[in-house]
Amino acid sequence: MASKSVERLLNVIMTIGSRRRIDRAKLFAVIPDYAEAVSAQAAERMFERDKASIIELGLPLVTERDVLDENTVHYRLDTARSGAVLDLTTEEYTVLLAASRAWDTAAAGGAARRVRAKLLSLGHDADPDLLRRTPRGAVESLPVLTPLLQAVVTGHAVRFSYRGAQGVPAERQVEPWVVGVHDGHWYVHGWDRDRSAPRVFRASRIESFPAEAGLAAEPRPEHMDLADVLDRMLDSDDRESAVLRAAPYKALSLRDRAGASMEAESLRLPVLPRPAARRLLLSDIRWVQLEEPASWREELAEVLTTIAEQHEGEADLEAPARATTRPAARIRVSPQSGDHLSRLISVASYVMSREEVQLAELADALGITEKQLVTDLQVLFVCGDMGAGWEDLIEAEWEHGTVRVRNAEPLRRALDLSAVEATALLAGLAALEPAAGQTAEVVESAREKLQAVVAGSAAQAATPVVPTRTEISEATTADEIAARTADRADQVLSAVHAALRADPEAEESHLTIRYSSADRPGTSVRRIRPLRIETVGARSYLLAHCDLAEGERRFRLDRIVELLPPGTSMSRPEPGVEPVLAGRVDGEVWLRLAPAGHWIAESFDAVELRDAAEDGDGAGATYARLEEPLLAPLVDAVLESAGAAEVLSPSELRDTIVTVARGGAVRHSQ
Known about the structure:
Largest sheet: 5 strands, antiparallel
Number of strands: 26
Radius of gyration: 28 Å
């Protein structure tokens, strides 16, 4: 059932929009909630809140004083305005609609939830073929993002409860400078009032809804890049260009940084600080052997030996039981009236622009269930122009699965995107961009039009706060390296997009690829038929039918290392000396995490967290329970943590960690 405020707002919009203008006294008399308010002051306060909501919604509400009697105030919706919030081509509209679907609207903030409805209010038709080929994105969806973005746009500070590296929540007051995405996760960079210094906060660790804390006072830097800020956190005076050996077709991220071919066994990385290089090498240690510098090599051997020793013998399986279960952060995620109202207006606008729409089609476009859609239509049915009698209510029908809406002309208009909503949509667009392929030009033109919306705010003039391509992928340090990496990615994407466009029965719909899996040595050759592209955080995946597996399989796009001629024989990887880490861990996994390893719990979506007592055994540790995580990524993450993570159970996984860590230590001790 819709809230009373949503019905009232819809009635106000219909009543004002159904006439050239209406004076304040008449409006207060015909809107039941104003007329029945306990006092004139209560009605005034209610109306002022409603006015703010209508303007925030994106409707052109105009307030005018009568030229003959300045005590009389009139209201109208500006019909002179074209109503074209964004002048989009069909292709641009299609990719923006796909970008709006990158959010989990059940968990996201209001700005992310509203953008799809507002796009539908534009009255455009999407290109169904392009929509099918456009990647399906997945942006980290957090309810805290809307107030954080709003604070950047308006130049305000916010306060919130934050659980930092030590695992203890604390109240923080921050003046946000930039809110963006890096490696698939949202971060806030700004001035920390409590520390009187710039700080970076991971948005997923914010445990309360950010509240406004006055105007920002600290000057915002003119130029900021979130990726640079995060990279500086791993900076060091000890900087070298590391030389390493790598198994062919493996250690792909290191190859990209080195600008090396897929087959090359000797790689030279660009100059990197020691902590950053160590983390990169440990995450791919199963496939590499560092040769120079010697001091870094010795350090790797020591770290790997420590990890192996940490996992030998019996784990303290009672430690998690002695720890205190951490309550889940409770941040409001329920839809607000503005979210619901924008959807109701979009339903009316969408249907009226097409005369009639199938119920299932409309529910899918909005991303809601058919039951929710019927509830929305029931709300429309009881609302209308309150100043003209009950005969001027909105007519809504949905019998036999066909939706029709009439007598709702004031709702047949495009809704403005606010700067915050445009920024949320830009984040969804950025999630699609790495796999955009041949639609990259369309994505870029749509981005420019969105950025023009954001730039319309005076607070945005100095500093871009939207996530850019460089904020969702690790920047390389030389143009030729970036070009070489991009060439391989573009070749794969172009071939995939061509296959997606082809008739499923045609030979052109199939590709033969060499695939380098993360869970075993060597590569496989597979004949596949691409079905769709999906993006999750900073990763892009291809869902395809695989002839070798005789079923649908998911391939990471950046692990398709070569396109092969049609007819190339299919093959599985040859057995190697490295252990095969295929599939998922059977059952649950318990981890003991030091502060530097807390990121593993977030990356693997831990289902339970427990904190050790500050004065007990394992003080400061966090225990995380994972449900059936992927084996290879988890082993790599434990090694990457450099001893900050210990697997407690199952014992078989501990043994695997010992085997891999000992093998790496031996290679670096010879």
